[in-house]
Write a structure and sequence with these properties.
295 residues, alpha/beta, six-stranded parallel β-sheet, 11 helices, disordered C terminus, binds adenosine monophosphate
């Protein structure tokens, strides 16, 4: 695996494979790699000739300075895991390389970004995401870009962006990787104390409860939501939101008449966690099917 730090060396490294028609895959990450990231790399490895992983903790998408400062960083460990998982090219630019002096452009997607994560983290969060993702897509010019279902609103926003800006690439969404007890893997889980980790399980439990309720015939979104909120509160977790929305528009729904996304965000101690699950009328589906339905 080769590590490059500038756009010029990245483009030089990709010139020859691109000329010979190699399929290039990009896995954007902020590092602190776990099995969720590795599943994206694995999928890219299966589908592409050249796998590029970007490693960039993007200051523009953090709405809290302490979250940015405390974000886990260990490039040597990440590089070893990426190489082992089959990454060919690690792109690990500095903040100055991505945002040189005079940088003055923001890519902003409206509508989809003003709710859920956008409502709680502020418009700046998604502007930071869409700006850096647009830049990474222009820098790497991949044929396929890989994202996790774990951040489903982000995927929905980027899907809109790629469509609206006519970017010539395919988006592949990979299922959320979880611990055996259901907790969705996240770099931020490292901040949880054992007691907080226990409470954090209430997020995936509440989502599963919602899926079970739908499987049991419940169609009323308010009832499903009320049950989930009660379960979270019983575990000592006050969520920022627990919403049932249409997967394409992210608009709240009143009834579950077709597949609906349940999304939850909550602070557990000082750690902010998000999770989501697709609720289908036939009940909770295997993760692979979940992402197929949305992609
Ligand atoms: P991050 O490093 O947190 O920006 O995440 C990089 C990519 O990994 C994003 O596309 C995430 O959605 C994805 N990802 C993070 N956690 C998981 C997970 N538990 N399962 C699958 N994908 C994930």
């Amino acid at each position: 695996m080769n590590t490059v730090r500038t756009v010029a060396t990245l483009r030089a490294a990709l010139a020859e494979p691109r000329r010979t028609g190699a399929r290039i895959g990009l896995v954007p990450t902020m590092g602190a790699l776990h099995a969720g990231h590795l599943s994206l790399i694995e999928r890219a490895r299966q589908q592409c000739d050249v796998v590029v992983m970007s490693l960039f903790v993007n200051p523009a998408q953090f709405n809290e300075a302490s979250d940015f400062a405390g974000y886990p960083r260990d490039e040597a460990r990440d590089a070893a895991l990426a190489a082992e998982a089959g990454v060919d090219l690690l792109f690990a630019p500095s903040v100055e390389e991505v945002y040189p002096p005079g940088f003055a452009t923001t890519v902003s997607v409206s509508g989809l970004t003003d709710r859920l994560e956008g409502a709680y983290r502020g418009q700046g969060h998604f502007d930071g995401v869409t700006t850096v993702v647009t830049k990474l897509l222009n820098m790497v010019a991949p044929d396929v870009v890989y994202f996790g279902h774990k951040d489903i609103q982000q995927v929905t926003v980027i899907r809109r962006l790629v469509l609206d800006l006519d970017l010539p690439l395919r988006i592949e969404t990979c299922p959320t990787v979880r611990n055996a007890d259901g907790l969705a893997l996240s770099s931020r889980n490292a901040h949880l104390s054992p007691a907080e980790r226990d409470r954090a399980l209430s997020l995936s439990r509440a989502l599963r409860g919602a899926a079970d309720a739908v499987a049991g015939g419940e169609r009323d979104a308010a009832a499903i939501r009320g049950q989930a909120l009660a379960a979270l509160r019983a575990a000592g977790v006050e969520p920022e939101y627990f919403e049932l929305v249409a997967p394409d528009t992210l608009e709240p729904v009143d009834a579950v008449e077709r597949p609906v996304l349940a999304l939850v965000a909550a602070r557990v101690g000082r750690t902010r966690l998000i999770d989501n699950q697709l609720l289908t009328l036939a009940g909770s589906q295997a993760p692979a099917r979940q992402s197929e339905l949305i992609t």
